[in-house]
Write a structure and sequence with these properties.
Elements lengths: L6 H6 L3 H12 L10 E4 L5 E8 L3 E9 L11 E9 L5 E6 H20 L7 E4 L3 H13 L4 E5 L3 H13 L3 E4 L3 H4 L5 E4 L4 E5 L8 E4 L8 E3 L1 H10 L1 E4 L4 H4 L1 H4 L11 H5 L10 E4 L4 H13 L1
Parallel strand pairs: 6-7, 6-9, 7-8, 9-11, 10-12, 11-14, 13-14
Antiparallel strand pairs: 1-2, 2-3, 3-4, 4-5
Helix pairs in contact: 2-3, 2-11, 3-4, 3-11
């Protein structure tokens, strides 16, 4: 059996609904352990990520590079692999395509958060950023929510048009917008998945909005205006993906908010913290546990 999977083979093993269910199951598994990830800065502005995790059956290590300078070129910004081992035998079970795992597991986590927290799950959905994460979030939300309409904003018009065409292929009404802030009041579902090198959303959102912000994962990266973040914290709820967000959630840190004071998605899913009304901001920074959930899904299939 071939255990070295390319991007399309990896995607075929990771349907979004099953991924979201595996993420939920991960929360209740006491055998799961996720050591702190290593993020090594590289010359030229890139980073090397080494992300291990394991449970009672499998162990994984994600090895990827993040190269922001590749944005807008033929090379992906994220490259690398996820290696999956059998804990009992030490055998290598699978090598999954790293960028595919990253895109699909991130979108599945956002989907689970939306299923738990979104007041108006049918949308319209505003996607800001039309790269791999934008495409994955479109597919995940279209599969797991009763979505009907999508707006797409991107600095690269060609990418926005391509994502709109994909949305129409999925049976959705889709439109390119040049200023995401102009349509923010119309959208109860929002995903920001940009390179996070500057604020892309800053206007006042709806009171029933659900925002999944996935682009930034360092203290210096930012997508959301500080006033928007503070508004969600004061009038609704901020939820972080994991406790590690206290070191990584640039949007919140630059707004003067303390991520450690907000509930995690695990606490919401397990009922340890109650969801509240008002605008909801879900800040996702990434975690090797999500890659472990993806490996579980791939092995099962």
């Amino acid at each position: 059996m071939n255990n070295l999977l390319d991007a399309s083979q990896t995607a075929a093993r990771l349907p979004y609904g099953e991924l979201a269910r595996q993420v939920r199951a991960l929360f209740a598994d006491e055998a799961v352990q996720v050591p702190e990830r290593l993020v090594q800065p590289l010359p030229g502005g890139g980073s090397l990520f080494v992300m291990p995790a394991f449970d009672a059956r499998i162990a994984i290590t994600k090895l990827i590079t993040f190269t922001p300078a590749n944005a807008g070129t033929a090379r992906p910004a994220i490259q690398g692999d996820v290696v999956v081992f059998d804990v009992a035998t030490g055998e290598r079970l699978l090598v999954l395509d790293g960028p595919t795992v990253t895109a699909r597991r991130t979108a599945a986590v956002s989907l689970l958060a939306a299923q738990q927290l979104a007041a108006v799950p049918q949308g319209p959905l505003l996607i800001v950023g039309a790269g791999a994460q934008g495409r994955a979030h479109l597919e995940a939300f279209a599969e797991g929510l009763p979505l009907q309409r999508v707006f797409v904003a991107s600095r690269r018009v060609g990418s926005a048009l391509s994502l709109v065409a994909h949305a129409k292929d999925l049976g959705l009404d889709a439109t390119v917008v040049h200023d995401p802030n102009a349509v923010l009041p119309e959208c109860p579902l929002v995903v920001t998945c940009t390179p996070a090198d500057g604020v892309v959303l800053k206007s006042r959102p709806r009171d029933d909005v659900f925002i999944a912000a996935v682009g930034s994962f360092t203290p210096r990266m930012i997508e959301l205006g500080p006033d928007l973040c503070r508004h969600c914290a004061a009038h609704g709820q901020v939820v972080v993906d994991t406790p590690e967000a206290q070191h990584e959630a640039g949007d919140l840190l630059q707004a003067g908010l303390e991520p450690a004071g907000f509930p995690t998605l695990r606490q919401i899913v397990l009922g340890e913290q109650a969801a509240r009304g008002g605008p909801v901001l879900f800040k996702s920074c990434g975690w090797a546990g999500w890659d472990l959930a993806a490996a579980r899904t791939a092995v099962r299939r």
